[in-house]
């Protein structure tokens, strides 16, 4: 898949291409019910996927419940020894699930 894509022209295109490649191996929710999990468990679909930017250290991800790509820049974290630990729930309701397109409307 990747070999058939043009060279990305910017970071946004590169991340989009990475998610496109991920789509090839993603198992959608409901496609294969109960194939690799016990009743009541999760695990028979792709629950989340991540793309790592090694040049401007960041992680992008999306979940089965929120396909809107999210980003966390490592520059926003205090990675010093002894810094308070923080965590992020990947399905947090504080994360947007859509981008409001109304500001892009043209006259």
TrEMBL record:
<protein>
    <submittedName>
        <fullName>Uncharacterized protein</fullName>
    </submittedName>
</protein>
<dbReference type="InterPro" id="IPR029055">
    <property type="entry name" value="Ntn_hydrolases_N"/>
</dbReference>
């Amino acid at each position: 898949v990747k070999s058939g894509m043009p060279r990305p022209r910017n970071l946004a295109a590169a991340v989009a291409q990475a998610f496109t490649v991920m789509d090839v191996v993603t198992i959608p929710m409901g496609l294969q019910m109960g194939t690799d999990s016990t009743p009541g468990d999760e695990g028979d679909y792709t629950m989340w996927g991540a793309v790592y930017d090694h040049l401007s250290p960041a992680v992008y991800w999306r979940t089965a419940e929120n396909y809107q790509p999210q980003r966390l820049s490592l520059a926003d974290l205090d990675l010093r020894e002894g810094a308070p630990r923080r965590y992020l729930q990947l399905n947090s309701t504080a994360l947007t699930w859509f981008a409001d397109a109304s500001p892009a409307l043209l006259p």
